[in-house]
Amino acid sequence: MKNKSLSFWLFLGPVLISLCVVVLVPLIYGFIFSFTDWTGLKGSNFIGLENYVDLFKDKEFLQSIWFTTKFAVVAIILLNVIGLGLALLVTRKLKSSNFLRTIFFMPNLIGGLILGFIWQFIFINVFDGVGKLLHMEWLSGWLSTTETGFWGLIILTVWQWAGYIMIIYIAYLEGVPQELIEAAEMDGANSFQRFRNVTFPLIRPAFTVCLFLTLSHSFKMYDQNLSLTAGGPFNSTQMVAMEIYKTAFNENLMAFAQSKAVIFFIIVAGIGLTQVYFNKKKEVDL
User: Fold this and answer.
1) CATH number for 87
2) Tens digit of each residue's pLDDT (9 = 90 or more) over 179-192
3) Where are the bilayer-spanning segments (predicted)?
4) What pTM was estimated for this model as a whole?
């Protein structure tokens, strides 16, 4: 028993140390610095809650929170609906199921910055060419307005992440006992009723996981936002992560940016943990 305990801590120890050094210590230091006037170029002085009072007067920060929230709501819904739909499609024992799984998952292998530049080319050059060819004016000038920039980010995110979410749903769908599906079919339940009353309750743990992943990813997204719209036009498509980065490194207001990051962390953690709590209560055991 002692040998097992020793080997356990030998394997776990480096991970815990790394976690503390990379995550926990910076988190504590960042929280402390948020109560100072540190700019990254000079020493810091304690100023209390001044940064937190000022950030709620920062219109650009509040606008980025509103834009990020709208983006997150739409992205979460579409990612889970499309991801689950793809999972249901490729678990129907089609001959091309393995091929389709690979195709749907492949966009997730492309880096965020590269993906943003690829879709920027599509939205600006390809859409503009097709719009002129087919006389569809609404295809021209994509990413030049807040609305098209918003939907451009949504399309990019769904295209990249839907396959990843699909994989998680597949893992749970393949674990659903077929006897229950067959019993419901014998009782006269149609396809929708079987999915709603049998399949979905059994894969709800996957829904909890996917909801948490899509929520955290949507709120924290930075690289795709940078490469696709760079927050334009006039910072109207700027998400919170980009706004905090600009505050810290463009304006050299490190402590002020850290106070924004603390508030942002509280918001995302609060929403994420709340949805996990309520979804866990609705899960059923096989």
Assistant:
1) 1.10.3720.10
2) 888 898 888 888 88
3) 7-32, 71-91, 103-130, 150-172, 202-219, 261-278
4) 0.89
